[in-house]
Amino acid sequence: MPQGWLDFEQPLAELMERIDELTAIGAKEEVKRLREQVKELKSKLYSNLTPWQQVLLARHPRRPYMLDYIERMVTDFVELHGDRAFADDPAIIAGIGKINETGLAIIGHQKGRDTKEKLYRNFGMPHPEGYRKTLRVMKLAVRFGLPILSLIDTPAAYPGVGAEERGQAEAIARNLREMAILPVPIVVVVCGEGGSGGALAVAVGNRVLMQENALFSVISPEGCASILWRDGSKTKEAAEVLKMTASDLLKFGIIDEVVPEPLGGAHQDWDEAAKLLKRAVMANFRKLALKSAEELVKQRISKLASVGVYTR
Predict the structure, then answer these.
(1) Model-level pTM?
(2) Which of 63, 89, 209, 210 could form a disulfide with 190 if both were Cys (CB 3.0 to 4.6 A apart)?
(3) What is the CA radius of gyration of the chain?
């Protein structure tokens, strides 16, 4: 497989490799014909993705991360560090910036590209001080009347001993409680992986959006397979039964909107992905700007209470 392509994309990868070879020797007519084949194949390949294939796209190593979106969507961004209690957590980005001259607070997860950065960012898995940092910045947003944008992309909160000793569960629970009653508009976007409490801790919003190939679930397919079947080879089946894709969660009312991606996934065109995301985010903020603080809190709590099915 050529580097950067997924297994199910092999036919497309082979075509693109052939186009590069023909371009190098100046075979323009053949290149034109193959480019038409690429368009047809892309349409066919990406219009009927399985849940597991969407898992692979959500985890794609070239998929844009939070800082990539900030670079393309946000101006005058100032990152704020530390929880004022223990330390800074590089797995969480939090700060103040502007989108289209609208000031807002921005929080979310940041993964790494290479080995060094992945270790520095802890693979996008926050410690409790990361969640306490987000809460500090969100309260700062309330003080200045700024809306809040949360960008989610994490496999989970970090489950290490140190994180547990410093109150991982308490930090997540506190964020859930506090976000529910913040008197400013909150828009949440799941941009990649939305895993378990690690995602939920910054996912309490008036509007919850998901990019087309993102995931949002209580557990990863691998974890689900190991628990339900005690068989790691059942990950594809787990991805199916978890109903973790954007289209499934929209049907269940867990999310409010699916944000389209460039054909083939956000990693195919970062600029276009950011343009589509920015358009969706600002449209939702404009709608929420019409609501009072009391209406925002009431709507957010009502949204949480309506999730799921239960009987007395």
Answers:
(1) 0.91
(2) 210
(3) 20
